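My hope is that you will study the protein record below before we discuss the fold together.
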Amino acid sequence: MTYIKFLNQIKNAQAAGKQSVQAPFSKLNLKVAKILAAKKYLKSVDKISVDDKEYLDVGLLYKNSQPAITHIKLISKPGRRIYRRYGDLRAVRQGFGLAVISTSSGLMTNKEARKNKIGGEYLFEIY
């Protein structure tokens, strides 16, 4: 399950009003979930094991009974990879959104990538 399916699973669960969702574990999904939890788009992220299979248990966050995640815009897709230099990274929604970049130093937000002067694959924007 790629991070694209993982993000769609989170968005669909929030649209249905669920409190948590279980997704198959991968290192990429875990890192994406930890970034979103650190930036207050998710409530919690836990790795659980059920019958020799690993899952991510993701607690969903709501603000005033509205989902914390309203839009997910996929930038880089399997058929077309998009790369950005650190100078080309801009604020998402005038600073109210978040972009996730895959760099040589791991996944990080657009603000962290600009601060560290590192470019990379522009994965998605979320707000």
Summary: The two ends are 22 Å apart (CA to CA). The chain has three helices and ten strands. The helical segments are 3-15, 27-38, 110-116. The beta strands are 20-24, 42-50, 53-60, 62-63, 66-67, 72-74, 83-84, 98-103, 106-109, 120-126.
